[in-house]
Design a protein that fits this description.
The protein has about 120 residues and is α+β, with helices and mostly antiparallel strands. It is built from two helices and four strands. The protein has a four-stranded antiparallel beta sheet, covered by helices on one side.
């Protein structure tokens, strides 16, 4: 089994619904995103996934979130856009083009992250 990982980041605001505490107020993060792809077979160049193509795909998703109020985006209407939900959202978008996506990590801070995988 082979695995590759790319990292990117974005900055955006959000607030948590049904939460009592500071995070119920609008605030922002500089999120770091890690996307992992796994597979058993390499192509003729002996690569699993072209990093450039994977980064382009992930950055298209992240660019949509960047410098937004995530709560205002239609995909997050009425739901609490926690890091867990954001990781699931990114996973689902990347999986459309990369069936081997195995996990997405979303870091709110250098010490706090949420992951999604199936």
């Amino acid at each position: 089994m082979f695995e590759v990982k790319i990292e990117t980041n974005f900055s955006a605001a959000h607030h948590l619904l049904n939460y009592k505490g500071n995070c119920e107020n609008q605030h922002g993060h500089n999120w770091k995103v890690e996307v992992y792809v796994r597979g058993c077979e390499l192509d003729k160049a002996n690569i699993l996934v072209d990093f450039k193509i994977l980064k382009k795909c992930v950055n298209e998703v992240v660019d949509y979130l960047d410098h937004s109020d995530i709560n205002e985006l239609p995909e997050f209407s009425g739901i609490s856009p926690s890091s867990e939900i954001i990781s699931k959202y990114i996973y689902s978008k990347v999986k459309v083009k990369f069936s081997g996506v195995s996990r997405v990590n979303v870091w709110e801070t250098p010490t706090s992250r949420a992951s999604y995988w199936e």
